[in-house]
Amino acid sequence: MDVKRFIVYGAGAVGGSLGAFLHRAGHEVVLIVRGPHLDAIRAQGLRVVTGAGAATQTIPAVSGPDQLVGAAGDVVLLAVKSMNTEAALRDLITAVDRATPIVCLQNGVANEPAALRMFPNVYGVCVMFPTTHLEPGVVEARAWPVPAILDIGRYPAGVDGAAEAVAAAFRSAGCHAVPRADIMRWKYHKLLMNLGNAVDAIVRPDEDVTEILERARIEGMKVLTAAGISFVTAVEDGARRGDILRVGVRRSVSSSWQSLARGTGSIETDYLNGEIVLLGRRHGVPTPVNERIQHFAEVVAREGRPPGSVPLAELVAALG
């Protein structure tokens, strides 16, 4: 496939950073973004902070797909939070050809099946990309000189020309990217890792949450096993990551942490811990830890509490 343009739907931490790296590498990129972030990008460009310093890029940005004319060679990089995927897909249907590749550059495993309901060519990416977006018009890539590992595969399985072409584009932008026929095995392992995002986001940073995270992941592994869902081992994942992603002194924070910091009023937990809860209910496996983390994080987000503001004792009491 000859990729002619990347449409980045959701130019926050991951989408904005990758869009900027692709644009810098010479690819045609258009960002779909809204609110103050869009205003800032239009007024002064997108400021990208990396280990090499800060640079501002002038990248075309629109507020919705309705402002675009779809064309052959388009590839959509879907980088919105999972709870916004359905609305984004319905917006895209009116603007791009149904054969357009939809690349789910997202955590969780619910986005790919949602996209496949509307588009025939869907791709999953296992996103290992330490990035932050806390102020309008600014994104920060925390790992350098390699900012991300973005392995990609066709959903539900396989590798084709589009996967190869997108992986090559990611590599041209400075990222590591390997086409994988079994990409969902990698995404399910990433899901297990992401079960701690909400806990990391809400609990005070000086408190030890190791036991809670372990309980959540053990539940997750039991559920995936009961459901017959394959996932890569920690050893496989560790071998893939190696020492590729070198993050600076400041700790990397999850997208859930950033949602609380920006005061969005929502959090992605329904599609992380909630995915384990859903599968547990389907297959008769109890998931009390993940269920209570899911509900507690929703309350914290809805109440507008900042990240790292919950004493561990309060979460433990909620867990029962």
- Overall structural class, as computed from helix and strand content, comes to alpha/beta
State the share of residues found in helices, binned by percent: 40-55%
**Which strands sit side by side, in order, in the main sheet?**
5-2-1-6-7-8-11
Helix count?
13
Write the layout of secondary structure elements.
Elements: E1 5-9, H1 13-24, E2 29-32, H2 35-44, E3 46-50, E4 53-57, E5 61-62, E6 74-78, H3 85-93, E7 102-104, H4 111-116, E8 122-128, E9 131-135, E10 138-141, E11 149-154, H5 161-172, H6 183-194, H7 197-202, H8 210-226, H9 234-241, H10 255-261, H11 273-283, H12 288-302, H13 312-319
Parallel strand pairs: 1-2, 1-6, 2-5, 3-10, 6-7, 7-8
Antiparallel strand pairs: 3-4, 8-11, 9-10
Helix pairs in contact: 8-11, 11-12
Give your account of this protein's structure.
The chain has 320 residues and is α/β, with parallel strands linked by helices. Helix content is 42%, strand content 16%. The chain has 13 helices and eleven strands. Strands 5-2-1-6-7-8-11 form a seven-stranded mixed beta sheet. A four-stranded mixed beta sheet has the order 4-3-10-9. 49% of the residues are buried.
